[in-house]
Model the fold of this input.
Amino acid sequence: MFDYFSYAKEIRRELHKYPEIGFDLPKTLALVRHELDEMNIPYTEKYGKSSIVATINPGKPFTIALRADMDALPIKEETGLEFASKTEGQMHACGHDIHTANLLAAGRKLNDMRDSLNCCVKLLFTPAEEYRVPGCALMVEDGVTDEFDCAVAFHVDTTMNVGQVGIMPGGINANSTGIEVEFFGKSSHANAQQKGVDAIRMAVEAYIGLELMLAREVPSNEPALLNIGTFHGGSANNIVADYAKIALSSRTQNDELSKIMEKRIKEICEKTAELYGGSARVIVTKFLPYVDCNPVMTECMRKTAVRLFGEESILPGKRTMGGEDFSFISRKKPSVMFRLGIGRNVEESPIAPLHSSKFSVDEDCLKYSIDLFVNFVTDYQNGITF
Done:
């Protein structure tokens, strides 16, 4: 009998050694193509950029999509693992190597049993979840959601133990908006400051205004955050800066509040610049809506998880302020995204957080993720009524 867990672990370690960023995934895509070819599973690369969509059992009346993101992060790995990253400054620090290995193993198992399946399965290998341009967004724009009736995904969770699963309906994370603001002034020598228009001053005042906006204008019962992560300006210590730039992230759990905050960020930056004799240009660089878990899909996944692992292993989900581009799929088709425990006794021995240079997982989690993907498909192969 084929050992799907050992296969997944081997694939995960190979992916972990060669992490890649954004849409630039030549090694990762080559590995996925090779494995799908070995399984004789047909696939296409026509959706978005650097994605692969494979099909098991085409022509069936009901289609379930299973998704995994493939990209890594620009982080120098410090885990000391024997299969640590061989690419300087790049690391699978968010578990996407686990996600991709799981999907290949689950796909292999489902393909091995395809003759007894009454549904079609789409395997979605998606790029650039961590990137400025979300990979799933481009795939949805190209019509990938026309290919299936519902979708399933998961994310590793450092706060839960191996064998535990977190599931909840509705919004499970936050809207995430990335914004860049450029401030334009007029340069002059420092000994004639009155002849210049200081772009750094505009950016500093805007920074303060944005912090006050978050504190004074957002209702206290609405989860929201704003982080200014970069601040650049000026060229020399004796020149009044004619240019400055900040980059920030705004997050909320409310679509309307996201729109209001975006509008106020633009107003504050533009009006502040005008007040000091300059101008500002505000550019939204990225927007991720929150993942919305369909209640029917969520209950279906919960029932499968309870049957497999027992009621005590299923934890109530918790809404976070994180972002996730599976959201673009969840806003188009009934979807569910669950959390998968990856630790051992995390209460007493916490593991390094996501996006940490020391992040690592207990690979036994793959046994549970493979079972959940495969059994969800077999449990609901005859369709789901929404």
